[in-house]
Amino acid sequence: MRDSVMTWDTHTARAALHSIKTLQKLRTVVVPAITKDALAHLGRLSCLTSLETHLPTGSDLEDVFRSSRTILPFENLRSVVWDIDNWTDVEVFTRIWFHTLTELSLRSKVHFDPGLLEIMFESFHTREAFKYLQSIHLSELSLCQLTPTIIITINTKRPLFHLNHLRVVYFDTRSSIWVDNNDLKRVAKAWPCLEEFSLNEPHGCHNPTPGVTVPGLIEFIELCPRLTTLCIGSITLAGVDMPLDSYEDFHMDNVEPCRSSTLELLALRYPYAQERHDDRTWIDRLMFFFEVLFRASPHVYLSFNSERA
Question: Which among 67, 114, 191, 308 has most CB atoms closer than 10 A?
Fold first, then answer.
């Protein structure tokens, strides 16, 4: 089955998994779960380039690598998507994986622990298999409750700054992510190839005092010449002059329109308290204000929402 793609729902997965062992030309496998024997078979397939499934237990992973008939299994696998139950299994994965990955996605059923995240990112920096990552997606599944008391700061992500091949970085957590203008400057310097960057756009960053300002946002975009997508779950509108007269436009002193012509999507959230809720024209004037700021990107899609506590 050359160029095969196998995708099964949970009802058929158990019955169908044994058939993996009869297929020799699989390139992409997407299954909700996988047996240890099936995983060992996939590890021997030189054509396999993409795998999406539930992360096996650490002991199963170790058994697969220890019993592999090849010197190093998964020799051409470049893209992995793991659904995670237990972060100890993630530690085993990062410790024993040998071959270079370019795309990694981790979808967790439990909250990301900032300390464990930092340890994992440090392993990405030090282990050869992860040094050439181009895309990282980290997300918490809907099973996780919104928990603003868990705070992820730039210090947690700092080891990732050594991965200078990163083009796509997505954090979609139900915790807090705190960043400011200086943090964005560090991101731009560390990842010169950055094309897509998203921080908690769906649920908000839940920073009570957002540190990303409008001028800081524009500066960051201009420092990233390849950036097409930017989503930040918490910015401040402080400094934007918002006249009470609904016929007057918003404006900001000492800020020039963004010169980027590559931006295609800008999605921002601002504190709920900064929205003027009794003014029906407020969101329209805010949108026009940003359209003027980003007129150099005529095809950019703008999205703005308030961030409720």
Answer: 191
CA angle at 169 for the pair 165 and 159, rounded to the nearest 5°: 65
Whole-Å CA distances, 99 to 75, 102, 133, 201: 6, 10, 11, 32
pTM of the model as a whole = 0.91
The two structure tokens encoding residue 240: 């934007």
From residue 293, alpha-carbon distances to 49, 122, 214, 246, 276 in Å are 42, 38, 10, 20, 21
Beta bridge partners of 105: 81, 137
- Tell me which DSSP letter residue 20 carries: G
Rounded to the nearest 5 percent, the helix, strand and coil shares of the chain are 35, 20, 45
Give the DSSP per-residue string, 193-226. T--EEEESTTT----SS-B--HHHHHHHHHH-TT
169-215 per-position pLDDT tens digit: 999 999 999 999 999 999 999 999 999 999 999 889 998 899 999 99
